[in-house]
Design a protein that fits this description.
about 150 residues; mainly alpha; about 5% strand
Length: about 150
């Protein structure tokens, strides 16, 4: 799991992310079959959660790492890429997919396409019970040209 305690702004946003998620999940349980009106609160809450994640949470992650520019591991292509090859230096230029990629850096390992270097993660079980999946084991210089 991401070492969230070392980044107070991300930790605060993560708490809000989880609060909104709990609201959405509780409202989802209240949806009745064949009753569109029962979906209204759920839809509104889901939209609010989604907007927070894409516009506020992702921005906090972007601001935290844009100056550090850590190397990233692309888990599907099994290669390493430079931060600036993935993310623009201007927030406004990041589309929906790039904002999701930012969220994937700090949410549970396996959520997104990219991972930060191992030093940003610990071996704590996900959600307090599931063991984290193994991350890449390659040397960060492998397949990467500085």
């Amino acid at each position: 799991m991401f070492k969230i305690d070392e980044y107070p702004e991300i930790k605060k946003a993560y708490r809000e992310h989880n609060r909104l998620k709990r609201i959405v999940y509780s409202l989802e349980k209240k949806i009745r079959p064949d009753d569109k009106a029962s979906e209204k609160l759920y839809d509104e809450s889901f939209k609010k959660w989604d907007e927070f994640d894409r516009n506020e949470f992702a921005l906090i992650i972007f601001k935290t790492f844009k100056d550090i520019e850590p190397k990233l591991y692309h888990r599907f292509d099994d290669c390493f890429v430079k931060w600036e090859e993935v993310f623009s230096d201007k927030w406004e230029e990041l589309d929906e997919y790039k904002r999701n990629d930012l969220l994937g850096l700090v949410l549970e390992i396996g959520y997104g396409r990219y991972w930060l270097p191992d030093k940003y993660y610990d071996d704590k079980p996900i959600l307090g019970c599931l063991p984290a999946p193994p991350t890449h084991k390659k040397d960060w210089g492998f397949g990467f040209k500085d």
